[in-house]
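Entry 14. Two folds queued back to back today. First construct below, sequence then structure tokens.
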Amino acid sequence: MHEAQTKNGWVVRSGASYPLIDFDTKIVNRDAVGDAINEYLDEYRQTLKNDQALQEAFVRKFDNLYHHASLAPEFAAGG
């Protein structure tokens, strides 16, 4: 995430003095967003190991992505 991707007055900042997202001042804290995403992924990974229903949903979603990628191989190859 960087400044070139912002719109409508939103800005990207970093550092402990900024909250994750400040809707009043339109500031997104790059570091806090990255940390929140990493924390979510860590929790998801741990839950996925032990939750059969989540595992089944994950496989269905991954299979769907694979199917759509096979319909557009140039997209899947990054072309």
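Second construct, same run, same settings:
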Amino acid sequence: MWIRGTGLCTAGEMYFRANEIKDELKLPTLISLVGDNVYELIVNLCNTKKPTDLSYDALITIVREHLQPKPSIMAE
């Protein structure tokens, strides 16, 4: 999965560059490349929306916030 702030995002961006993937094709390319488990996570995180209804950046933000949540003040 390609998440900003991790090496995985860098790998994804390099894939897009190396294959000359246009911005409007980043989301469909991402969805076609992730495995079943990651796609299921994406669908669950999108709640009532379909992943294909979001922009690439919006989807990356949703997944990143899930995988890298901000620390809770209450927990500290």
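Quick look at the second one. The CA atoms of residues 2 and 9 lie 4 Å apart. DSSP finds four helices and no strands in the chain.
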